[in-house]
Amino acid sequence: MRSNYLTLKTTASDEIIISKSRFIAHCARVETEEDAQNFIDAIKKEHRNATHNCSAYVIGEHDQIQKANDDGEPSGTAGVPILDVLKKQHLKDTVVVVTRYFGGIKLGAGGLVRAYGKTTTVGIDAAGVVERRLHDKLKISADYTWLGKLENELRNSTYILEHINYAEGVEFTVLVPVEETEAFYAWMTDLSNGQTQIKRVEQLFLEFDRT
Questions:
Q1: Residue 173 to residues 45, 98, 180, 184, Cα–Cα distance (Å)
Q2: pLDDT tens-digit map of 40-63
Q3: Smallest Cα–Cα separation from 207: which of 141, 149, 134?
Q4: What are 104's strand-pairing partners?
Q5: Where do the H-state alpha helices sit in 47-170?
Q6: pTM for the full predicted model
Q7: In angstroms, what CA-CA distances link 98 with 40, 43, 88, 127, 203?
């Protein structure tokens, strides 16, 4: 399973005018090729009177599903430039449709490539990008004599202290990046002289805005 990857924060659209043509980027996060095709079909239906609805998507842990569609534009001038932007920004599970309403001025092959690439970037900026990081949710159980020290150390660490449960003993629920779990076990064992019990509850993704 992948542990960290970039994808869109939300579904969004934005537009620009280039040589009197209106270009609208529609961007969404998707999990399957069916989701991507449904999104493309919905945009085509919404903008059925547009000159073109060009699209591209990248799906899968290893980008194993990649498709690009020029929708009537000269071959390689629309879908591929959209796809190239997705790949250059290392986005996964992402679909983009760029709608064009022709303004009467031909752009030429190079102009089309630049226009579709630029519009895609504008749409991605509108949607925002997040990094999804896989975390282990860990439950640390200890005697109350360790409460002060462990709570202080956890709050001053880079780990996310999600919850403290005060039961027969104290239980800390902590979110730890999967690549740091082994180091966390060692750190916690050292802090408590081996007097803690650690159990993994589940794995989940947390999302962080790309900086």
A1: 47, 44, 16, 13
A2: 999 999 999 999 999 999 999 899
A3: 134
A4: none
A5: 79-88, 108-127, 147-155
A6: 0.87
A7: 10, 9, 17, 14, 36
